[in-house]
Specification:
Number of domains of chain A: 1
Largest sheet of chain A: 5 strands, antiparallel
Radius of gyration of chain B: 12 Å
Helix content of chain A: 25-40%
Order of helices and strands of chain A: EHEEEHEEEHEEH
Strand order of the largest sheet of chain B: 2-1-5-3-4
Number of helices of chain B: 3
Mean pLDDT of chain A: 95
CATH superfamily of chain A: Molybdopterin biosynthesis MoaE subunit
Low-confidence stretches of chain B: none
Shape of chain A: globular
Oligomer: heterotetramer
Helix content of chain B: 25-40%
Radius of gyration of chain A: 16 Å
Structural class of chain B: alpha+beta
CATH topology of chain B: Ubiquitin-like (UB roll)
CATH topology of chain A: Aldehyde Oxidoreductase, domain 3
CATH superfamily of chain B: Beta-grasp domain
Number of strands of chain B: 5
Mean pLDDT of chain B: 97
Strand content of chain A: 35-45%
Number of domains of chain B: 1
Largest sheet of chain B: 5 strands, mixed
């Protein structure tokens, strides 16, 4: 398990290629999230991401552990950026390697779904018109609830 | 009773600070009771926050908690709007 | 939709980064599959992959269309290698971009699951002991059946 | 009746060819009937294949099909073991 919170941009590619070179890897699944240029018809100038240092790492470690308890995975890497981000910038990467693909798919989707609701990050969107804190997506809460049903 | 209080995102902006050591004149047992005391003693934004606490989340010592979870001397209390990372 | 069958190695990274730069992309999910060093306790020397030219493309196009009918995705890229591959080499990549992450996850997993059972590729594993054509995994058939139940 | 026949993987190795134009002395209606005729006329490996056809897959004109699907003059028939790509 590797958890990285940083301001700088990072390369999903390098992570995938490093994971794939380790022993006994049959599958790597990666999720990467990007800043979209439009939010509710408003053209974004930039985004600011704030987090709660310490709790972020603690919550991501606990999410990772829950994933690992359910699916047989080799390695997991979670990288999340904070600070000022521009449209099309990468925000987050979740990369999971495993022997067989289904475990990597499930663990990767589980981690990003719980990151969305339980890891303390907050996004602020700055456009020409206004600056607004992003509000939670009902869809995200529903997805988390669906995983809990499977437990 | 001493607590460390943290605000994030919109609450940080509203209250004008991100963290503060709080020395309460009495002991409180939960985040909810903490807000009640603060709204009685300091008023203003605190009354608002107490009344709208369902719109916010609370963490005790960096773990998500509920408004009625137990808090003790020295705890780190964080209050923030719903999480929107990823 | 892009479908590529080739002998040469390819870079998942480059594909992800290209997809992420297009408009309105919030999420990219990638699956990459690799040659494992061991197969049933035998140390692999190399692998040979054979395919049915023409049918491969036809079946992948049909799988991609089915995925697109079910989930709102932006772009899909499927790359599969044929010929001689060494342990740890990349075999296949499926990369899907979308506005919201769930669609990319579902479409990517659907495509690789159906590729495994419906796209005409065959693997031969060459070790010091023997040369054997890989036999189908019951797990793969089960996964395909599970998708059909959801239809 | 003329058919184009393709074998892949283990069948290609067993039969020693990957594709062949086949001119049948009579018309067949399905891949199953094709195998039956071949096993009667050519014997050997064909008998084996006919008897074990449940272990193999068939495609007609590059679409997965069943042993009883209709085939017509000029069709491309491919026979192969289960797919193991990805």
């Amino acid at each position: 398990m590797t958890i990285i919170i940083q301001e700088n941009v990072f390369s999903i590619s390098k992570i995938i290629s490093e994971l794939s070179k380790k022993d006994n890897v049959g599958a790597v699944v990666s999720f990467s999230g990007y800043v979209r240029e439009f939010s509710k018809e408003k053209k974004l100038k930039f985004m600011e991401i704030e987090h709660y240092p310490g709790m972020t790492e603690k919550s991501l470690e606990s999410i990772e552990k829950k994933a690992r308890n359910q699916w047989d995975v080799n390695e997991t890497i979670i990288v999340h950026r904070v600070g000022k981000l521009l449209p099309k910038d990468i925000i987050v990467g979740v990369i999971v390697s495993s022997k067989h693909r289904t475990n990597a798919f499930k663990a990767c989707e589980f981690i990003i779904d719980f990151l969305k609701t339980d890891a303390p990050f907050w996004k602020k969107e700055i456009s020409d018109e206004d600056k607004v804190w992003v509000s939670e997506r009902q869809e995200d809460i529903k997805k988390k609830t669906n995983w809990n049903k499977l437990d | 009773m001493n607590l460390k209080l943290l605000f994030f995102a919109s609450l940080r902006e509203q209250f004008g600070f991100s963290q503060k050591e709080i020395a309460l004149s009495r002991t409180v047992k939960s985040p909810e009771e903490f807000l009640l005391i603060m709204s009685k003693e300091s008023g203003g934004e605190w009354i608002n926050l107490f009344n709208n606490k369902k719109l916010y989340k609370v963490a005790i010592n960096k773990d998500l908690a509920s408004w009625r979870n137990l808090i003790v001397e020295g705890d780190e209390l964080a209050i923030f709007p719903p999480i929107t990372g990823g």
